[in-house]
Structures are given as C-alpha cells and as structure tokens.
C-alpha cells in the first residue's frame, strides 16, 4: 500500500544508454513531479504534471522526457545518459495543481552512470 | 545568488538539546514555507507548513517565519536520536517550488 512508488530503486548503466524510471501514486492526487537530488543533497524540480498536462518544465536538457499516461503515473525517460546525470531522482505527488499543498515523495531512484 | 540559502552543516548536538535550523531567501514573492525531513536513503517527508509570518508549533517542532527579514527557522526541542536526518526548507510562490540544500543533523545519545 505504498503511496508513491518508483522503479527501479537502483540503476547502474553506461554512458550513452537510454533508460526509464517509472513512478506511480495511489493517493488520487492530480499533480506529480520529478526532482533531481545531487550528491550535495540539493533538490531541484525538473517537471510537474497536472492531470497528464505538463505545467512545470524547468531548464532540463532535452534528453529528459517525462510521460504521463494517466494521472496516477509519471515516467521519466532519459536518452544518451551522461556522467552528470548520476543522482537520486525523486517522484512526488500533491493533491492540488498549485503546489501549496503537501508533497508526498517516493523512495527515490539512485542512478549511477559509468 | 540562489533563491534559497541553507547552511548544510553538519550539525551535531547531544540528546535533549534545542536545535535551530535556518534558511534565508531572496524572493519576496514566496508565500508558503515548508520544512521537510529526509532520512538517509529515503524521500523527503513534510514536517511543518506555514503561510504567514509568525510561529507555528507542532509537538517538539516550531516553525518560524519572518517575511520582513526573509528568514525562516525550525526549532526542535528536546532533540532525540531519531531526529537525526537532513532537514530541507522549501518555499513556493505560485507554481514554482524551491528547496534549500538541506542541513544534516545528528543527535548524539
């Protein structure tokens, strides 16, 4: 009965590969997010979707493409992985479009690019 | 200049101490202020949430916002070893979300 789940938890891959991270929430929330947390613990928003519509798209390389098949899922596809993409990627959801509401975070996906 | 500044620490205190964690910000449009706690290898979880200037208390935790100084604080009374975690401040105007870098706290039994 995990509220926000992510798969995989760990991802080790070579430079140049393409990979996807999946996120699912069973909270009935309308809004979902992807964050990147670097080695210094800095948490930076990448994307936000509300009811499958992209509402926040921060300055992120085009190699990153979010996809929301329905409002309970927000996947992140990364093309041509680079060393600097190594980080922990967190998915989160919140019950309101305007992010004043509480955000519920997933456990994170630890990506290591070799 | 970063939107939100937070001292990364690390901060180490004995059990029972009062802990003060702080963030400053530069954008006067920020309206909502939050503190998240992140245990090692876990996602952040919301601790406190405030909208206006002033204090908000929840058990051993007190969140303080001073909009005139663009300064927010989190106080932890009677700190416990289970409080050992990274604490991130977060704030938002409309449709944007900014986190501090987090302060690593260790409470020593």
Q: How do the helices and strands line up, and which of them pair or pack?
A:
The complex is a heterodimer of chains A (114) and B (109).
Chain A: E1 4-7, E2 10-13, E3 19-25, E4 31-37, E5 43-50, E6 53-57, E7 64-70, E8 73-78, E9 87-94, E10 104-105, E11 109-113
Parallel strand pairs in A: 2-11
Antiparallel strand pairs in A: 1-3, 3-8, 4-5, 4-9, 5-6, 7-8, 9-10, 9-11
Chain B: E1 4-6, E2 11-14, E3 19-25, E4 32-38, E5 45-50, E6 54-58, E7 61-66, E8 71-76, E9 85-92, E10 98-99, E11 103-108
Number of helices of chain A: 0
Major sheet description of chain A: 7 strands, mixed
Spans of at least 5 consecutive residues with low confidence of chain B: none
Q: Which radius of gyration of chain B do the C-alpha atoms yield?
A: 13 Å
**Main pleated-sheet profile of chain B:** 6 strands, mixed
Q: How many distinct beta strands of chain A? A: 11
List low-confidence stretches of chain A.
Answer: none
Shape designation of chain B = globular
Kindly name the structural category of chain B: mainly beta
Most extensive chain-chain interface: A-B, 23 and 22 residues
**Fraction of residues in β-strands of chain B:** over 45%
> Which word captures the global form of chain A?
globular
Give the SSE string of chain A.
EEEEEEEEEEE
* Series of secondary-structure elements of chain B, N-terminal to C-terminal: EEEEEEEEEEE
Features:
heterodimer, A: 114 residues, mainly beta, 7-stranded mixed β-sheet, 4-stranded antiparallel β-sheet, 0% helix, globular, B: 109 residues, 6-stranded mixed β-sheet, 5-stranded antiparallel β-sheet
